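Protein modeling request. Please complete all fields; requests missing the sequence field cannot be processed.
Requester role: graduate student
Desired output: 3D structure, C-alpha cell encoding
Chains: 1
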Amino acid sequence: MSRLTSHIRSTLSARLSLVVIAALAILLVVALFIMFFFSRKALREEAISNAAQSLEATVARIDNILLDVEQATGNMYFKMMPHYRQPEKLQAYTQRLVDVNPYIVDAHFHWATDSIPVDFNKVGWITPLRLKELNGEPLTAFRLPIYEGQSVIGAFDVSVSLTQLTEIILESKPSPNSFSILLDNKGKLIVFPDSAILNKNAFELTEKLDNNAELGVIHAMTSGETGYRYLKMDDRDCYVFYKPFVRADVPGRAKIDLGWSAGIIFPEEDIFGDYNRLLNTVFIIAIIGLLLLLVSCRLFIHRQLVPLRQLAVSAQRIAGGSYDNPIPDIPKQDEIGRLNRHFQNMQQSLTMRMGELQRASEVLKDRGDELQATYEQAQAGDRMKTNFLYNMSDQMMAPVSDITQRVMTISNSANELSEEETNRLVDEIHDRGSMVTALLNQFITDSEKIKDS
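Delivered output (453 residues):
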C-alpha cells in the first residue's frame, strides 16, 4: 500500500487520472442516484396503480363468477318453485343446475323440519362452510329463501367450491409470484393459494405464527379499509394491496354488502426485480467503465507527459552544468510545445551568457594576475624604500648627533672657548653638515631611481 501511495504521489499522470476518475465517479453516482431515485418513485407509483387495477380486475372476476352463479340460481329457482312439493323434479332441476354451471358443485334444499339450524330468511352469500357430503370441500353458498304464502318454509342453497374459485382467480396472476386473497368480515379465507387453509380463520392462523404485520393487514381488510402495506411472508419482502369487495350494481340483483375484502400480494421482487437487476447492471457497467476510463486516462496522460519528463531530464542536466546537450524538439502547438521552445531559447541564452561569463572570467583572471604582479612589485618597492630609509637614517644619525653636540658646546661654553677652538668646532659642524647634505642628495637621487623603476 505504501508503495502504491508513493507511486501516486511521485507520478503526475497517476494523480491526474485519479482526480479525473474521482470527479467523474462523483458526478456519475450523483446522476445515477437522482435518476434511480425518481425512477424507483415512478416505478412504485406505477406498481401501486397496476396493483389497484389488478385488484379491481380480481374483484370484477370474482364478482362475475358470483353473478353468474346468482343468475343461474335465480333462473332455476323460478322454474323450480311451482314444483317445490315434488322432490323428484326438484332433484332433476338441481342436478341440471350443477351440470350446466361449471362453478356450482352442489345444490340442495333446506326445510324448516331439518335438524340443521338454517337462517332461511337470508338472501345472498352465506359464510363459507364445509360439507361432509363433499369430503370436506371448502364451500361458500348462495341462498334463496323458499316461501309458502308469506311464510318461509325453507331455503335453496347453491354451493361454489372455494378451491375451484381460488384456482380460477390465481390463473390470472398480475405477476409471476403474486396471488390474490379474499376474506369475509370474520377473517375466514375464501380465496387463498393454499387450499388446506381455505375456510379457516386468518386471525387464528396469524396469531399462531406471531406475525404482527400480517395480523395488522387482516385487521385492516376485515375493517373495510383500502390501501397497501409492507410485510414479510416466507422470508420474502412483500406488498399487500387490499380493498373492500364491492359487488357490481346489476338490475335485479340483491343489494347486499357481503363484508368481504379482496387483496393482492406482490413480492417485492415482482415489483422492483427488474429495477434492482437494472441497478446492479448499471453499477457494474459504471464500475467497469470507470476502470477502463482510468486505464485509458492513465495511458493517455502518461503519453502526453513524456515530453515533460524529457524536459525535466534536460533541466536536470542544465542544473548540473551541462549546457550544450541539445533539448529534443517537440512538434506540438500546445502548452507543452511552447514550453519546449521556451526551454530551447533558455538553453541558448544560457549558453551565450555562460560563454560571455567564461570570457569575462578569463579577462578578470588576466587582470588579476597583472594586479598581483603590480602589487608584488609595489610591495618590493615599499620594502626597498623602507630599507633605504633605515640605512639613510642610520648614516645621518652620527653626523647630526655630532652637529648637535658641537652646537650645544658652543652654546653653553661660548665665553670659555678660545677663538681657535671655536673655529675648529665650526669647521667640524661644517664638515658634518656637508656629510648630511651629501647623504640627502644621495637619498633624493636613489628615490628618483626607485620611482623611475
